[in-house]
Design goal:
Layout lengths: L8 E4 L4 H7 L1 H4 L4 E7 L3 H11 L3 E7 L8 H13 L6 E7 L1 H13 L6 E5 L2 H7 L4 E6 L2 E8 L4 E4 L9 H18 L1 H15 L3 H21 L15 H10 L6 H19 L4 H13 L12 H14 L6 E6 L2 E6 L3 H12 L1
Parallel strand pairs: 1-8, 2-3, 2-4, 4-5, 5-8
Antiparallel strand pairs: 6-7, 9-10
Bound molecules: nicotinamide-adenine-dinucleotide (NAD) and zinc ion.
């Protein structure tokens, strides 16, 4: 990720996580001590890293798995643990887990002593292709998700695809929605590869995963490098499927995983793309067929009402000061941003999702 003095690498490779970490110069510096923040579901990996860090370990914290831990209470708990571990300016934070751990430990790192470096060791597919890259950190408040946070680019991201072996199937497939998204927004070759070798991906073959993850990370890195703080508008392409997807996610009251809601949001965006940008029917069919192969939901169920979805989209729009615009696809691999879509068109898109 090229960001001048804040540039960093993303290592993608299998099996050698502790070695990868200890090879990194900043971690070998004599004064460097590490504080490990680990998800309760990946403690075995956490223990391996603790052993590998040896005397360099300043302390560690295990965070209860789940979105509820992405809170100010967890950050406060980490401040306490950080104080006990006597974290100083030579300390670094290592975040081991999914997006929840990355976001909360990243925010802790961003604010402790006004900012300690953080190394991300993502262990979910979502985190490996998305949340560990780009520097967005933060927590939820009772009134809404991701309302408190900071941009804090990591020092390093170490992705080991073999850590995904233990990830529950549903979580894994939700991550595939983001992978498919990268193909649609920027990479027809990736999309074609997914179509050709999707079975290998479903089997979580490490070599296939490494190829695909590297490709996704490259896209995210490029986008972030060109639009670090969402000011030039380029970063908006990452929101393909997310406008309606977020609406569905909120209206479903989080019965759907993020990736599942995004799969539906992408299908809705595909329908709009066919109408507004003349996305060819054959390409629309390829997208929906891949989403189905991923075992992601392809139909909107009755319990999730249009009114609730539209209300949630309107709320997103208000929060963004009227800036919520659609990202639609012209072809697989090419999208256009900033498209205004009427509420009626959204309703029709939802109607098609129920058919
Ligand atoms: N910062 C960003 O740019 C960004 C981008 C996308 C999502 N997010 C955030 O990320 C969060 C979602 O991330 P997520 O999908 O990784 O969820 P998550 O962190 O909750 O992980 C999902 C589940 O998998 C478990 N888990 C993690 N790794 C595992 C492993 N290797 N084996 C077995 N179980 C494992 C976790 O304990 C959890 O139960 C949300 O809070 C979202 O807002 C942030
Ligand atoms: Zn997403």
């Amino acid at each position: 990720v090229r960001l001048g003095a804040r540039s960093y690498s993303i290592h993608v490779g299998g099996g050698s996580l502790p070695a990868e970490l200890s090879r990194y110069p900043r971690l070998r510096a004599p004064a460097t001590r590490a504080f490990l923040v680990c998800d309760s579901n990946v403690q075995a990996l956490g223990k391996r890293l603790v052993r590998a860090l040896g005397r360099r370990l300043a302390g560690n914290a295990i965070i209860q798995a789940g979105e509820a831990s992405k809170s100010l209470a967890t950050v406060e708990h980490l401040y306490g643990a950080g104080a006990r571990a006597k974290l100083d300016r030579h300390s670094i934070v290592i975040a081991v887990g999914g997006g929840v751990i990355g976001d909360v430990a990243g925010y802790f790192a961003a604010t402790w002593l006004r900012g300690l470096p953080v190394v991300h060791v993502p262990t979910t597919l979502v985190a490996q292709v998305d949340s560990a890259i780009g520097g967005k950190t933060g927590v939820n408040l009772p009134v809404g998700k991701n309302l408190v946070g900071a941009f804090h680019q990591p020092l390093l991201v170490v992705v080991d695809p073999t850590t995904l072996r233990t990830l529950p199937e549903r979580e894994y497939r939700a991550g595939l929605a983001e992978v498919i998204k990268y193909g649609i927004i920027a990479d027809a070759t990736l999309f074609r590869r997914l179509e050709m070798r999707f079975d290998r991906l479903l089997r979580r073959e490490p070599s296939e995963l490494a190829w695909v993850i590297r490709r996704c990370c490259t896209i995210k890195a490029r986008v972030v490098s060109q639009d670090e703080r969402e000011t030039t508008g380029l970063r908006a392409i990452l929101n393909f499927g997310h406008t309606i997807g977020h609406g569905i996610e909120a209206a479903a009251r989080y019965r759907l995983l993020h990736g599942e809601a995004i799969a539906l949001g992408m299908l809705a965006a595909v329908g709009l793309s066919q109408r507004v940008l003349r996305l060819p029917d054959s390409e629309a069919e390829r997208i929906s067929s891949l989403i189905r192969r991923a075992g992601l939901p392809a139909r909107l169920e009755g319990g999730i009402s249009d009114e609730k979805i539209l209300a949630a989209i309107r709320l997103d729009k208000k929060r963004a000061a009227g800036q919520v615009r659609f990202v639609l696809a012209r072809r697989i691999g090419r999208v256009r941003t900033g498209i205004v879509v009427s509420a009626l068109s959204i309703r029709k898109a939802l109607e098609r999702l129920r058919a």
